[in-house]
Amino acid sequence: MSFANITTEQKQQVLGELSAVKADFAARGFFPGTSGNLSMRIGPYSPERFYFAVTASGKDKSKTTPEDFLFVDQNGNPCESTTLKPSAETVIHNEIYRLTGCGAIFHIHSVYNSLVSEWFWERRAVPVQGVELIKGLNIWDQDAAIDIPILSNFADVPRIVPEIAERIADRIPGILLRNHGIYAWGRDAFEAKRHLEAFEFLFEYVYRWELLKSKK
After folding, report:
1. Digit-coded pLDDT (tens) for 163-192
2. Quick one: CA dihedral 175, 180, 181, 185, positive or negative?
3. Using CA atoms, how far apart are residues 202 and 115, in angstroms rounded to an integer?
4. Which residue ranges are tagged as binding site?
């Protein structure tokens, strides 16, 4: 199925959902300095061909305009004639969609996710055990123990992509870039948002717990 077969109604629904998430996250201060990006897949999926809406590069995400998002294909190329440029990190979204087949990906920068990514960098994962919000990631084991992968961060964003396939974990719907931020995904916008919120709670919990342990 080509992008030309996707209906106006389908496009409007995706853009409406993304706009609502963007407004919510902006109100919570999740997009400092135009950072962060959001995307949502549209239409049928195969690893070789898919389409998604993604935030346009360099926009103030605290404001809503008709040019907040554009549609791109599995290679990050615009599907429609536009002067907009997709986020520089669209290649990361491309790879996550290709590997997982998910429906939405949300990426934000926060102080806590940046701090724990540096604190646990040598371990290459943030360990969390027994915290209730792990259930927010669809992990229901008693006293669950998880490791949230931390990946290298490069200014040359395409250099990050090969590590995604190496480090992505089956049960963990997210990856953390060192001193950069969390990418969380889900079957749809609702699930991706829930996963991101769970990750952010867990990062703050881990940071504060490490701080308390250091004072014993």
Report:
1. 999 999 989 999 999 999 999 999 999 999
2. negative
3. 12
4. 107, 109
In which domain, by residue range, is 68 found? 3-214
- Is the pTM of the predicted complex or chain greater than 0.85? yes
Instruction: Kindly report the three-state secondary structure assignment for every residue of the chain.
Output: CCHHHCCHHHHHHHHHHHHHHHHHHHHCCCCHHHCCEEEEEEEEEECCEEEEEEEECCCCCCCCCCCCEEEEECCCCECCCCCCCECCCHHHHHHHHHHHCCCEEEEECCHHHHHHHHHCHHHCEEEEECCHHHHHHCCCCCCCEEEEEEECCCCCHHHHHHHHHHHCCCCCCEEEECCCEEEEEECCHHHHHHHHHHHHHHHHHHHHHHHHHHCC
Burial of 90 (0-12, 13-18, 19+ CB in 10 A): buried
User: Residues comprising the binding site for Zn(2+)?
Assistant: 107, 109
Residues 85-119 pLDDT 10s: 998 899 999 999 999 999 999 999 999 999 999 99
CATH number at 65 reads 3.40.225.10
Tell me which residue of 165, 173, 180 sits closest to 199, measured CA to CA. Answer: 173
| Number of domains present in the structure of the chain | 1
Predicted pLDDT at 128: 98
Dist. CA 139–CA 98, nearest whole Å? 23
